[in-house]
Specification:
The protein is α/β, with parallel strands linked by helices. It folds into 2 domains: about 10-150, no CATH class; about 185-340, Glycogen Phosphorylase B (Rossmann fold), CATH 3.40.50. About 35% of the residues lie in helices and about 15% in strands. It contains 14 helices and 12 strands. The chain has helices at about 1-5, 20-35, 60-65, 70-80, 90-95, 100-105, 170, 180-185, 205-210, 215-225, 235-245, 265-270, 290-295, 325-340; strands at about 10, 15, 50-55, 85-90, 120-130, 135-145, 190-195, 230-235, 250-255, 275-280, 300-305, 320. The strands form 3 sheets. A 6-stranded parallel sheet has the order 8-9-7-10-11-12, sandwiched between helices. Helix 4 packs parallel to helix 6 and helix 10 crosses helix 14.
Length: about 350
């Protein structure tokens, strides 16, 4: 233990600490063992009718960022569209698959890990974060992925911005294939905010990076400004069912950090019962899954960051846009009144 404490802060080549490397080594071995157990590790890539996409990432960010959801979504949609997926890359990328959604990739057998020593791998498409694919891959097309890009209002020099989607769990459950059912729900909730209001959602990052109000600022403005008006705080399942039964939801606020949240399997159905949703930012960027989930079932977002979509969302068309506290209160009151 004493030796570990003395060496954990040593820098290895590339500025990596001994502690980071040691942890990554353990996680790499776990990934390798799970892949072996599922028959995915160092397996030959046999020719089949399904075309192959080869992923090769040296930067581990795509495997580790937000619990690995971006890599999971990329692989899942490739598989849904009839492609096989092989994954290669750096040591830290493979070790990064010990995230929540990385483990899901392995458990669902969505990727395989070919042996580069087996010779050239023929792929329809190679997606990599390098300027050129690795030498052991023969490919028809090459797509370069850039990670760590700050969210902007335009694509700048990049051809495609990776879209923000539903929470990955809904794709795993294939709920996205049945959205029409929830779009036909009777809408009894006028305006909704539902989300985590823990302290990390009150930091200054959203304002410093994007000039937008944080989640806590948005919700606090509404609770203070709408005080005495039709506001419903929901903290139990009984209160939720009573709200839906009265068919006059007003402004509904559910703070997930207080111990009650709508179960994930019922969330899309509840959004289908909602007319407007206040879509407050996430921790360090404006976009959050709740906005995409709401729009997917016909719930209209009330938001301050419409320009960060491509194409931008239009006020009074796809959404209700506000800027600042006064416009936020005005927008929510307008939505409440138009449904009275």
């Amino acid at each position: 233990m004493g030796l570990f404490k003395r060496t954990e802060s040593l820098l290895l080549p590339g500025g990596i600490t001994f502690r980071h490397a040691f942890t990554a080594l353990i996680e790499y071995q776990k990934t390798k063992q799970i892949a072996r157990d599922h028959g995915l590790w160092r397996t030959p890539v046999e020719p089949t009718e399904a075309p192959l996409v080869y992923l090769h990432f040296n930067d581990s960010a795509i495997a580790t960022r937000d619990l690995g959801r971006y890599l999971y979504l990329l692989v899942m949609f490739l598989r849904r569209n009839g492609y096989r997926v092989a994954l290669g890359g750096g040591f830290f990328t493979i070790s990064g698959l010990q995230t929540k959604f990385g483990k899901l990739l392995l458990g669902r057998r969505l990727v395989q890990f070919p042996n580069p020593g087996d010779g050239k791998i023929s792929a329809r498409l190679c997606i990599t974060d390098d300027d050129r694919p690795p030498d052991h891959v023969a490919y028809d097309a090459h797509l370069r992925v850039v990670t760590g890009v700050k969210l902007t209002t335009t694509a700048d020099s990049y051809d495609i911005l990776f879209p923000y989607m539903l929470h990955p769990t809904y794709y795993d459950w294939e709920y996205d294939l049945n959205l029409d059912e929830w779009r036909r729900e009777k809408r009894s909730v006028k305006v909704l905010f539902s989300g985590n209001m823990g302290s990390r959602y009150s930091n200054s990052l959203i304002w410093e990076r994007y000039g937008k109000q944080s989640r806590m600022e948005v919700v606090s403005t509404l609770l203070q400004g709408l005080e005495g008006e039709e506001t419903n705080f929901i903290a139990t399942e009984t209160e939720l069912q009573g709200l839906l039964a009265q068919d006059d939801g007003g402004f509904v606020c559910i703070d997930n950090s207080k111990g009650f949240r709508i179960p994930k399997r019922e969330w899309l159905s509840f959004l289908g019962k909602t007319n407007f949703q206040v879509c407050a930012p996430g921790v360090d960027m404006p976009l959050c899954h709740n906005l995409v989930e709401g729009m997917s079932v016909g719930c209209i977002p009330i938001l301050e960051y419409s320009e960060y979509f491509d194409p931008p969302l239009r006020d009074n068309s796809e959404c209700i846009v506000f800027s600042g506290k006064e416009e936020l209160l005005s927008a929510v009151r307008r939505c409440l009144n138009m449904l009275s």
